[in-house]
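Quick one:
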Amino acid sequence: MLPPEIASLLELYLDSVHDMQQFSFLGLVDNSPLSAYKALKSQNNGFQQIQSLRKLWNYDAPYPDEAAVAREKTLVTQQINLHKKIPLSLYQQKSYRVIAASLSRIVFNKLPERVKPSAQPMLDASLGSLIGVQQEIAYRRYQTGSYATPYESLIREYNPHLTEEKTNDYCSIITDLMDDVMDRPAHKIVTSDTDFREQLSFGQKMQMLQDMQEWFGIPAGYLEIYPASAPAVIGSSHAAFMSHDFKHPDLAIFLGDSVHEIGHVNYKLHLPKNLRRTASGQILGTGHDEAQAYILENHILEDDATREFICDYLVKGYGLSPAKWNPQNLDRYDRTFNFQTRRLESCDLSNLVHIAVLTGIERDLINSGASGKTYGARWKQAMQHYNPAAAQSFDYSLNLYPFAGLFGNYPSYFEGAAGAAQLYEAGLAQNPQWTGQWRQGNFRETAGWLAEHAQKPASTKPIDQLYQDATGSPLTTEAFLTKYRAKYGLNT
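Output:
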């Protein structure tokens, strides 16, 4: 029997690899996440299995334009051929090192604070070894001449249409926005001193998750929920599984995480039944998946109408204090910068800056071939500009992805943030009645609009065409900048 913390880690690791294109069609979602992990591990030759499945994919999905079909076929074929040039032994080595690095991170986080400094070199060495494997894989792909840089080859594992140049643009937009906020008078930087910790039971939090499924119209029996060390979702249109941290004392974080994961559940629910035979590029990449989660967590949940409903729900349903749980306190909380305690995937601007910093570190390490042991030191140096207190120590609990081997996935969050803002702005403009529904706890019509305009078409249209049809414009950062400049008082 695996210790609970190791089982939770493997659940999260499975989600990380399963949702990525190279593992998302293995058909392992019929059992619990841990059972699926064991099945994946028992295959021994996972890479060969992936290649076989790729050959079976149906490349004739109905694109609106034959030229797009041809481009997609070419892209996917190139990627398959590039993978064939990389020795299977390298992938096997990578998978073993991912698990070793992840387990070493778990052990490190459980050590007493007084001994962590002496143990940190071990963890740095483990991460450095894993980065070395990523550097070799990226460089071999780059040598084929199909990518502008080695790091771009890793980015396109998760978002086939995304380039390093576009990724750099996203990073600049995020960091410039943060610099603008930091240049404002001190009173523009809002700080929340409300303590949102609540002593709620596992059963009460599970009831909240069940209620959320009802709010968004998720069919009964579709989603199974398991306790774990972190929130995550895997699944297909047939079934979905959510892991969640029921022990976290901060109820505001629990609610944000829950709504975020419900967004992922909605996306998986509305994907086509035959997705396992669909070319990888036709699911638009992990950035679009993140957009479906961000629109719920960082736009709908932050709307005044939704805040009113949530506060009323908690006060009347769970007896919580209205002096604490009111829209004004939630607004201050949502505009508070915190580089240390908000989870990394949150779309809070400080954490998008964090992701931009990590993206820059990954890019420079992969493209230069420099020692991966410097990862933590590079992070500390970069964070000095934004938050010297947070930069004193490399917080491994906020930097999971390097230990999961997911290099190249960070840019997904930029695209997710931009896409969510654009879908929210357009959806609300087309459907002004939504806010009245949200105030009553009814999000079904909103979920239906997202299903028809952003989720079901994700297997049939290139990303810019999808956003053009849904919002009237290809994917841009305009709506994102409008939202966050207003949120932090930069328009006055």
